[in-house]
Design a protein that fits this description.
The chain is an alpha/beta fold. Helix content is 34%, strand content 23%.
Length: 481
């Protein structure tokens, strides 16, 4: 089996910022872990603005290059229908990442991770056959945020609203040196400060000099460059001062209340929606920000811990960190109308109904039908477990079953697979297509399945799918490439 491939058409610079490349890196790293070959089609300045791109080890090709691949991801405000269309014939699927909804696209999948964005905003902008994925459920976060979410949830649950540490993060480039304005506003503060400075910041010497002077004056401040532990920094902060870009979803995932500053025009809608929801306090356009505004805003939050706690709860509800897990199945072309969709709490009831069906329980590890309360606890725990993947199988858009993957050991690509088909869809070959689907998505994984010795139908299913018996009850399908 040949490794599937993906091309990422995105740019970065001091003017553009680093957000487009960073979120494409999130996708590329995810797919590389699954065995995909990935390359970046980027402008010359991208690696200077985002050194992580060079360090990633991905091949970098010029933006004019057209190369055959299973998917082209396009994340570029300068490109619309004609530029998208130029990849037809070179890519099996075109996936566009956007957050403006202001131009037409030629794509098979459109993803906009903006909170409160509605698919109707794009229906007139993409082909009728396009799949439109919108909202912060699809926020593309690095794995560290999902992995850190559980510990952050526990910390936030006991949070009193007292502000003892603030995190400042203003994007990868900060071309307008807003960091200096924020630091001036925190002069003499007794709060511990973590200042994250992007690798592409053109004002680095001035910012570092200011931080050094504040430290000499007794301010508890630490500068962080080339950060690889952003989730940890966010998890231990009580509030953040940050921009309205893609980092917004990282902060929400970890329940971090934010004083937001709009650094680019495309951040206004995000800032407005999050402010309306109550998880951020939006100060508006960067050019209007003064040190005194920063100072008075932080003091105001210090004096209103109940508001800080409320902001925390609202933030946690916006993003759960599983956006990449939701996007991944849409990287695979549908076969016979079969699609895998990551389950949500709205699927809790239908899965319980399927699990209660006598034929389902006949060969289950536990033949007893789970109580509703036990099912709810299990379901929510599974949704929040970064090592479990609970997919709904759909046939032509109708719920037809469940496929679950559970990682067998940390940091491995060995999974136990469980599959359940809804009674109305028995005998239609759906389970076979679903197993083939996950193999195409992850050709380097090893899949294991436990099958009851008397369950002849399931034993035939896994044998047909290329699994081999390990012993009397376990079957194994080794990596395909």
């Amino acid at each position: 089996m040949k490794r599937p491939s993906a091309i990422f058409r995105c740019d970065a610079s001091h003017e553009i910022g680093s957000g487009h490349v960073m979120r494409c890196l999130t996708i590329a790293n995810y797919l590389r872990d699954c065995g995909w070959e990935c390359a970046f089609s980027a402008c010359d300045g991208a690696t200077q603005a985002v050194p992580f791109l060079l360090q990633s080890g991905f091949e970098i090709i010029g933006p004019e290059v057209r190369r055959s691949s299973e998917i082209v991801f396009i994340d570029n405000y300068a490109m619309s229908y004609e530029q998208d269309h130029s990849y037809r014939g070179h890519a099996g699927k075109i996936i566009v990442l956007d957050d403006l909804a202001d131009r037409t696209h030629d794509c098979d999948v459109l993803l906009d991770q903006t909170f409160s964005r509605n698919s109707d905003d794009y229906k007139s902008l993409v082909p009728e056959s396009s799949v439109i994925l919108t909202g912060s459920d699809y926020a593309l976060l690095r794995p560290q945020f999902l992995e850190y979410r559980d510990s952050s949830l526990k910390r936030r649950a006991a949070f009193s609203g007292k502000i003892e540490r603030v995190l400042i993060s203003l994007g990868g480039t900060d071309p307008h040196n807003v960091m200096s304005i924020v630091l001036d506003g925190l002069q003499g503060s007794t709060i511990s400060i973590d200042a994250v400075i992007g690798a592409g910041c053109p004002h680095l010497p001035q910012v570092m000099q200011k931080i050094s002077a504040m430290a000499d004056q007794g301010v508890k401040i630490q500068a962080h460059q080339n950060v690889s532990n952003m989730a940890e920094l966010m998890g231990r902060a009580d509030i953040a001062i940050g921009a309205g870009g893609t980092t917004s979803w990282e902060r929400c995932c970890l329940g971090l209340p934010t004083v937001m500053i709009e650094l680019a025009e495309n951040q206004h809608d995000i800032a407005t929606a999050l402010s309306k929801d109550g998880c951020v306090l939006n100060l508006g356009w960067y050019a209007d920000i003064t040190p005194d505004m920063i100072r008075q805003t932080v003091i105001g939050l210090q004096n209103d811990p109940a508001r800080v706690v409320k902001m925390t709860k609202h933030a946690l509800a916006i993003c759960d960190g599983r956006g990449m897990d939701r996007l991944a199945p849409f990287c695979i072309a549908q076969d016979d109308g079969i699609q895998l969709v990551l389950m949500s709490e709205s699927d809790m009831r239908i899965l319980h109904d399927w699990q209660s069906f006598p034929a389902t329980r006949k060969y289950a590890r536990n033949p007893e039908v789970p109580s509703w309360d036990d099912h709810v606890l299990w379901f929510k725990r599974t949704l929040n477990n970064p090592d479990s993947f609970l997919y709904k199988i759909t046939k032509d858009g109708i719920a037809a079953g469940m496929l679950r993957l559970d990682r067998r050991a940390s940091d491995t690509r060995e999974f136990e697979v469980s599959i359940l088909i809804a009674p109305d869809f028995y005998g239609r070959g759906i389970a076979s297509v679903a197993l083939d689907f996950i193999r195409k998505l992850d050709p380097v994984a090893t899949f294991m399945a436990e099958v009851h010795v008397e369950n002849e139908a399931s034993r035939r299913l896994f044998l047909k799918a290329g699994f081999t018996p390990v012993n009397e009850t376990w079957f194994e399908q080794k990596r395909a490439v």
